[in-house]
Fold:
Amino acid sequence: MKSMMVKMMVAASLMLAGSASATEMPALAKKHSCVACHTIDKRKVGPAWADVAKMYKGQDAEAKLIAKVAKGGPGVWGTMPMPPNSPTVSDADIKELVKFILAL
Ligand code: HEC
Structure:
């Protein structure tokens, strides 16, 4: 039931992402502390998610980014590695977040 609620909230924020210019970090990103290192439009510890979306625009990057978020690692945006998020963050949640990021 709770995960159903979370899914609905993510779906709602995905719909908003298309129209609102000041996109907010989705509830899932707050729940899993992605917000500690990422924002939508400013570089923090990790790259801005809007920049990630720009870099992979037109590419079929979903599977690749799901694997990267799960396993973590450095090299694409600098030498600072992202810590692994799996298995703390479920595969389903990682997928939702990557879809959100690529849709920015
Ligand atoms: C402790 C800080 C930290 C946390 C927490 C974190 N990230 Fe990252 N993230 C980074 C860093 C640093 C990079 C850049 C890695 C690189 O250069 O390859 C990154 C890169 C990324 C990328 C781009 C990967 C690529 O290969 O281009 C995505 C997508 C991403 N993070 C999503 C997430 C999501 C979703 C979460 C929450 C589940 C999250 N991050 C939590 C630090 C973090």
User: Anything to note?
Assistant: DSSP finds five helices and no strands in the chain.
